[in-house]
């Protein structure tokens, strides 16, 4: 299964957003991968539970990524996180 979503974080998948996403991905029952989408095609996937892997994608604000994994609920949860500005400090 796959989900495509645009990065809402103002700094893209860098530091804080990558850490929050990797923690959420690590908490899932099944592994999830993420790949940056360029010209409609998903690139090489990385482990969504890896902060360094996420940062290596170089995904910026407004760019699209593709989440892949066997659990639809997990993909929905992670896609919802990416659709938020994770760089903002919690209230």
From TrEMBL:
Transmembrane segments: none annotated. It is found in: Cytoplasm. PROSITE patterns: PTS_HPR_DOM, PTS_HPR_HIS. The keyword Nucleotide-binding does not apply. Gene3D superfamilies: HPr-like (3.30.1340.10). Residues 1-89 form the HPr domain. Keywords: Cytoplasm, Phosphotransferase system. It holds the Pfam family PTS-HPr. The keyword Ligase does not apply. NCBIfam families: PTS_HPr_family. PANTHER family: PHOSPHOCARRIER PROTEIN HPR, PHOSPHOCARRIER PROTEIN NPR. General (non sugar-specific) component of the phosphoenolpyruvate-dependent sugar phosphotransferase system (sugar PTS). This major carbohydrate active-transport system catalyzes the phosphorylation of incoming sugar substrates concomitantly with their translocation across the cell membrane. The phosphoryl group from phosphoenolpyruvate (PEP) is transferred to the phosphoryl carrier protein HPr by enzyme I. Phospho-HPr then transfers it to the PTS EIIA domain. This is Phosphocarrier protein HPr.
């Amino acid at each position: 299964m796959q989900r495509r979503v645009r990065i809402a974080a103002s700094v893209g998948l860098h530091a804080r957003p990558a850490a929050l996403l990797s923690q959420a991905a690590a908490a899932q029952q099944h592994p999830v991968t993420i790949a940056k989408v360029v010209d409609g095609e998903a690139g090489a996937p990385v482990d969504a539970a890896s902060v360094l892997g996420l940062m290596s994608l170089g995904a910026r604000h407004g760019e699209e990524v593709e989440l892949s994994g066997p659990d639809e609920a997990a993909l929905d949860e992670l896609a919802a996180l990416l659709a938020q500005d994770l760089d903002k400090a919690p209230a």
